Structure formats: structure tokens, C-alpha cells
Amino acid sequence: MAFNEDSSGSGHDEPWIQWFCGLKGHEMFCEVERSYIEDGFNLYGLRACVSNFSDCLDLILDRIGPDDSDDSHLTQSACTLYGLIHARYIITAHGLDAMYNKYAAKEFGTCPLAQCQGQPVLPVGLKDEMGADTVKIFCPKCQCVYHPPPIRSRSSSHHGAGAAGVDGAAFGTTFPHLFLMTFSNLVPDPLPPNSAYVPRVFGFRVHMSARQRNTPAGTVAAAPDTNNNPKANNSKSRVSMRKSSSSAVAAAKKEAAPTDAAAAAKNSPPNKAPNAKNDDGSAAPSIKSETADTSKPTAAKLSSNIARNNNNKTGGSNKRRSDGEESGPKKDGFLVDSSAVKRRKRQDG
């Protein structure tokens, strides 16, 4: 708790609870009802958390005077005990009503975010254990947690430096959310999606690459972040797909090349060298390639072409036999035009 020897309870005439809530930085505390503290059921389990529990309870309930509690350690323990009691009280019906009045008066402060436009905040603790962390403020509009800003003290002669010394366990992790569930009419509208601040230079938005650190000479600069650029992602994926497909085709060709060569060597007949010899010592005839030279016309092709031409001239007088060979008079193995034979006979006759 934000308690020091200068804030000692000696010398004050007001009740201890009012004195405690009026200390510098304790503006977020509300006054717990005396009847709530006197009920032993509400204090179950707190005896093990505070030393001199009975003396601290008597000091809070003003059963002992201020002059009898000059011990600063006792006062510090009483402040810790009151914080634990306060965390339980503010989630009751009477405690929520007491905190409602403070929230309406903006005694907890306002949200430091400019987009929230002075939205009142609520105190919250990040831990329920004493000494773990200090109190924070929760904004119901932006749903964020902030450090408490400086708050003006209730005393006109003091300006509070905020609740930086107040333990977060005095408010707990449940209070702000239960408060908004109880008073649902106080829940503000959330921030619009386009309310985020956009950095600009001369009216132009700052690109993501401008936030990257300059890399020293000789090092490779990091690629710009294109998570928010779908076009860049699509082009990048296309390039990677092309690279993977081309590499796969090249690998397939490389694997298929030796296989095709082996198959060709297996099917082709072995050619002997020009100077090779047989087993008896005679020269072996060289075997020429069986691949025909298609650039030179063969006799079969010439005969078929001549027969086709003769057949066209005679109107199909030369008929093809069933075995595929054309019938008709031949000379030197070639078909003779029947019209030419008749014409020569007439001349001779």
C-alpha cells in the first residue's frame, strides 16, 4: 500500500477508514461499511495473510486510539488488511453501488488513448496476490489496460502522483468486468475498425519498409513484409510454382535420358568395326545401318508413282489386283500405258 511514516495515523481525529481513503494516491478506494468488516464470515482466510490480525482489525474499527498505534509496522499491516477486505467488498451489491458513484464522477480517471475521447476507466489488478503487481486501469471502450495517470488528490494542498504505490490485489481481477456486467447500460460502444492512427509524412502513409532497420554494407537486406499485400503474395507464389515445375521437368529429363539410351543400344544390332575379322581370319563384312535413306527415291516408289500417273490418264484402266500389285502390260518391270500400245499398233498396221 501507499503508506509511509509521513502518513502515520497518529494525530488524526477522524475515523481510520476515512483517514486511509483520504491519503495521497488512495482516490480509487471506497469506504467499506463497518458492518461488513465486523462480520467474521467476510474475513475468512485473511488471518493467515496479515501478521497481528487482531490488532490490525481493532485499529481499522477504531477500537484502539491513534495514540496507541504509533507502531508504523502495525499501521502498514492494517493498510494491507484493509486492501484485502476492500477487494472482497467492491464485488458485493453495496460495494458495486459505492464504486458506481465514483465511476460516474470519473474519480478513477479517463483513458489516455485519444480515440476513446475521455472514456472513464475502472481500476483492475493483474494478480490477486498481495505484492505481485500494482493497480492498473481498464478502459471498457478500447478493452486495454494502462498504468494509472496522475490523479488530483482530494486535499487541495496535495497533487497525487497516481496510484502507482497501490497494490493491485486491493481491487482484484474480477471487479471491472463484474461491474460492467451488473451495470450493462454503462458499456460503451467499441472503437470503429478505422479508428486506428495512421502514420503519415506530408500526407502520405508511411510504408512498412520504412520501419526496417538499415543493414550494414555487405549484408543481405531482409525482404519487405508482404503479409498485408495479397498481390505480392500471389506473384511470389506464382514464381515459386514456376521454379518448382521447371526443376521437376529437368529432373525427369535427366533420369529418362540414360534409360532411353540404354534401350536404344539394346534394340539396335551390334555393328562390327570396319577392320574386324571373323574367327577363321577372314575379313568380316561390315553391316550397314538398316535405316533407309528417305532422301533418295526407291524403285518401288518410282513404279507406284508411274502407275498412279498412267491410271489417271487412262481413266482407271489399270486395275489393282487383290494381292495389291497393279495388273497390265509391263516393260522392264514398269507398267506400260495401254493407250500408247494401241496407238503404236495402229501405226505399224
Automatic annotation (TrEMBL):
Keyword line: Kinase, Transferase
Domain of life per record: Eukaryota
InterPro entries: Casein_kin_II_reg-sub_N, Casein_kinase_II_beta-like, Casein_kinase_II_reg-sub
Ranges of compositional bias, category Polar residues: 288-317
Keyword hit for Magnesium: no
Alphabetized GO MF terms: kinase activity; protein kinase regulator activity
Family from the record: Belongs to the casein kinase 2 subunit beta family.
Assembly, per entry: Tetramer of two alpha and two beta subunits.
Record's protein name: Casein kinase II subunit beta
